[in-house]
Design a protein that fits this description.
Layout: E1 2-10, E2 13-21, H1 47-52, E3 67-73, E4 79-85, H2 87-90, E5 95-100, E6 104-105, E7 111-117, H3 120-128, E8 131-136, H4 143-146, E9 162-166, H5 173-181, E10 185-193, E11 196-197, E12 205-210, E13 216-220, H6 225-235, E14 243-246, H7 262-274, E15 278-281, H8 284-290, E16 293-294, E17 297-305, E18 311-320, H9 332-336, E19 343-350, H10 365-383, H11 387-394, H12 398-411, H13 416-419, E20 427-435, E21 447-453, E22 458-461, H14 471-483, E23 490-493, H15 510-535, E24 546-548, E25 551-554, E26 559-562, H16 563-567, E27 574-580, E28 595-603, E29 609-618, H17 626-645, E30 676-681, H18 704-716, H19 727-733
The structure holds dioxothiomolybdenum(VI) ion.
Length: 737
């Protein structure tokens, strides 16, 4: 390790810090770095392949003799298979394999059996030929019903279906009551958010082929090729190196594809039985039922502040359901965003007979931030304080203060009071704000190999995956920067467990975790090229070799070689260097801040909410490619808007079935809902790795629902506390039927 002094921070708040960095790593990029390729707005390298249809997704994989699989799923929310007859299905035309999956089903859509046939139609006919004798049990799908003492047990065991837990270091109820009693102003509000289902453009799916040597190749739509490899290896008692998982292009994951899924195991079992490759892609309906979801929440927030607008108490009691899974915890923002002397958090996961929750873009933070920022606005109202001023008084992060300043200016915050009535008859406008908070600093683990060949070609190899976010492009940019090349001179290979190890793409971790290793590997490979060049000059001692502008140059040695010329000095076919991502340095600060402003127009007759504009101010350390970062932020905003106004899973209490398991009844934001979006990328030199890059996928969705809810509340003068904010709730808030 060596000490290096770097310049970190943001406009108006830069400072020099000393960081300990591994000797093998290049000097960290900091506020003084002048970069040529990193920071450029470049289109995705695979963009042409995607728009021309050349890019191969899992659905496009076609193998010799490949069969198509379909899954028989439970029509009941709770049932036992008393008997199942698969024989008729086995004898249907084209059917090559039939397997049983599960006899105990606990939600509508749970897999029961699966078939593989030569065509999709044959597979579906075979499903219809399976006869099942069911013993239907009592189910519970409603959150509050499931909490009652006499509710059917979802997982057996003791009632209620509730798993309560307190946060660490939490104040007692008595301490909270005391703090609230002594407060100048208090609020006590309950917020509700629905279960929303994962709706990736590309559904879950695998293509599986058993090889002659007993090893397995899996093409899977996954955020974590290595996690799928390890899961599949465990499921079939293989060694990890006997399983190869590939993911070349992807249509989104958002947390629903972070590990091995059941469909992959089903496909592999069918393929083994059929002795042929099998493709199993989930349908849109299956995605809604069993593809994972964001848990619901009911959040009671009691909060108080003193006469100076300082928070005195934050008390959250929450519960929510992730169906047959847990994971409804949503206290993250309330636990960490604001300074507060008395804080209490209690939460329960409630089990219901519904599809299992999965991580979903900033798990817990989206529902938690909506409730917290709604509560903060209400309290600001009671104190007669400007919502931003109230936030600043309780938020120790001065980076976010600066972001509020910049966003307020663009959003026209100072004219907020006049905005309300500016909409014309029968309509009202409102402007609201909310904060973001996330980690996103990445972590150690990923390994990257950089291969530079005698002909000057450069290949960056890493088994990470590009979820559609542009990972391939930013890795090429980082390597090009280090080697003084353009992105077109760098080839990136990823999405393959045969490549060097990388961690899963979740937690907005990919860019910050992988880019430092790319830099280190590229720097190490470049050092080998420099050695080769020096070796070709008798007695050369120069230490000032540098790669820039497509040249390798040394003033002292009087050398200026074109890249290909320099690489021609390599002895042997190529130089190949591998680097491992090291731990984060101390640097500037952990985590990202950020905030968003929403301007809405509400139709007071129909209750329809139209979001006119979102101003999003976000920081994510060094921005490798502003076009891709903005694209991530727009995606987060659209998904957040969709959550705030439209999406909700509807289950029928009587049958336990999902009533809107399709994309016409399950509404997602489309072009008509998408507002004018203005993104501001706030410059922060983070200095926690050699690139200083941070993640932005999740921070961008966190503030959107709260900002929209606060804007609606500003427009109406009344608060809607339940998401989605549908016209009926708006009219109810206005006292209209
Ligand atoms: Mo994410 S919810 O970390 O893929």
């Amino acid at each position: 390790m060596g000490k290096r002094t770097i310049r970190v921070g943001y406009a108006g708040n830069y400072r020099e810090v000393e960081v300990n960095t591994p000797d093998a790593e290049p000097a960290p990029w900091d506020a003084n770095s002048k970069l040529a390729v990193v920071g450029k707005r470049l289109p995705r390298l695979e963009g042409k392949d995607k728009v021309t249809g050349r890019a191969k997704y899992t659905a496009d994989v076609k193998l010799e003799g490949m069969l198509i699989a379909r899954v028989l799923r439970s029509p009941y929310a709770r049932a036992t298979v008393k008997s199942i007859d698969l024989e008729k299905a086995r004898k249907m035309p084209g059917v090559k394999a039939v397997i049983e999956v599960d006899r105990e089903v606990r939600f509508h859509g749970a897999p029961v059996a699966a078939v593989a046939a030569e065509t999709e139609a044959q597979a579906e006919d075979a499903l219809a030929a399976i006869t099942v004798e069911w013993s239907v049990g009592a189910h519970v799908v409603d959150l509050e019903e499931a909490r009652k003492p006499d509710a059917p047990r979802v997982q057996g065991g003791k009632n209620p279906n509730e798993r309560g837990n307190e946060a660490q270091d939490t104040a007692t109820e008595d301490a909270c009551r005391k703090a609230l009693d002594a407060s100048h102003s208090t609020i006590d509000l309950t917020f509700r958010t629905p279960v929303v289902t994962h709706s990736c453009l590309e559904s879950h799916g695998s293509v599986v082929r058993w090889e002659a040597d007993g090893s397995l190749t899996v093409w899977d739509s996954t955020q974590a090729v290595f996690a799928v490899r390890d899961g599949v290896a465990r499921a079939f008692q293989l060694k990890a190196e006997q399983v190869r998982v590939l993911k070349e292009h992807m249509g989104g994951g958002f947390g629903s594809k972070l590990g091995m899924s059941q469909h992959t195991v089903m496909a592999a079992k069918l393929a083994r039985e059929a002795k042929a490759p099998v493709k199993l892609l989930l349908t849109r309906k299956e995605e809604h039922l069993a593809g994972g979801n964001r848990p619901s929440s009911v959040q009671r927030i009691r909060a108080g502040a003193d006469k100076d607008g300082k928070l005195t108490c934050l008390w959250l009691e929450s519960h929510g359901t992730g169906g047959v899974a847990g994971g409804a915890w949503c206290a993250g923002p309330l636990a960490s965003l604001y300074a507060c002397p008395t804080r209490r958090i209690w939460h329960a996961d409630v089990m219901t007979n519904a599809g299992a929750a999965a991580a979903f873009r900033a798990p817990g933070h989206v529902q938690g931030m909506f409730a917290l920022e709604s509560a903060i606005d209400e309290l600001a109202g009671k104190l007669n304080l400007d919502p931003i001023e109230f936030r600043k008084r309780n938020d120790a992060n001065t980076l976010r203060h600066s972001e509020y300043g910049e966003g307020a200016q663009i959003a026209g915050w100072e004219k907020r009071a006049q905005l309300r009535g500016s909409a014309g008859p029968g309509k009202a406008r409102g402007l609201g704000v909310a904060a973001s908070i996330w980690g996103g600093g990445g972590g150690p683990g990923p390994q990257v190999r950089c291969v530079i060949s005698r002909d000057g070609s450069v290949e960056v190899q890493c088994g990470t995956q590009d979820l559609g976010t542009g990972t391939r492009t930013i890795l090429a940019q980082v390597a090009a920067e280090e080697l003084g090349l353009t992105v077109n001179q760098v080839r990136v290979k990823l999405g393959d467990t045969a490549l060097p190890f990388s961690t899963g793409s979740g937690g907005s971790m990919t860019a910050p975790s992988v880019t430092p290793a790319v830099r280190s590997a590229a720097a190490a490979a470049l050092a080998r090229v420099i050695e080769a060049v020096k070796g070709s000059i008798p007695g050369c001692e120069a230490t000032d070799f540098a790669a820039r502008g497509g040249k390798l140059e040394s003033k002292t040695a009087g050398v200026s070689l074109g890249w290909a010329e320099a690489c021609a000095k390599i002895s042997g076919a190529n130089v190949s260097e591998q680097a491992t991502r090291s731990a984060n340095y101390q640097g500037f600060r952990d985590g990202t801040a950020g905030c968003q402003f929403a301007e809405v127009e509400v139709d007071l007759e129909t209750g329809h909410v139209q979001v006119l504009r979102i101003v999003a101010v976000h920081d994510c350390g060094l921005v490798v490619n502003p076009m891709l970062a903005e694209s991530q932020i727009c995606g987060g905003i659209i998904q957040g808007l969709s959550y705030a106004l439209l999406e909700q899973r509807v289950l029928d209490n009587a049958t336990g079935r999902m009533m809107n398991a399709n994309l016409s009844d399950y509404r997602i934001a489309g072009p008509k809902e998408i507002p004018d979006i203005r993104v501001v990328l706030f410059d922060v030199a983070n200095g926690r790795t050699n690139t200083g890059v941070m993640g932005i996928g999740e921070p961008s969705i966190i503030p959107t629902p709260g900002a929209i809810a606060n804007a609606v509340s500003h427009a109406l003068g009344k608060r809607v506390t339940d998401l989605p904010i549908t016209p009926d709730k708006v009219l109810a808030a206005l006292g209209k039927k």
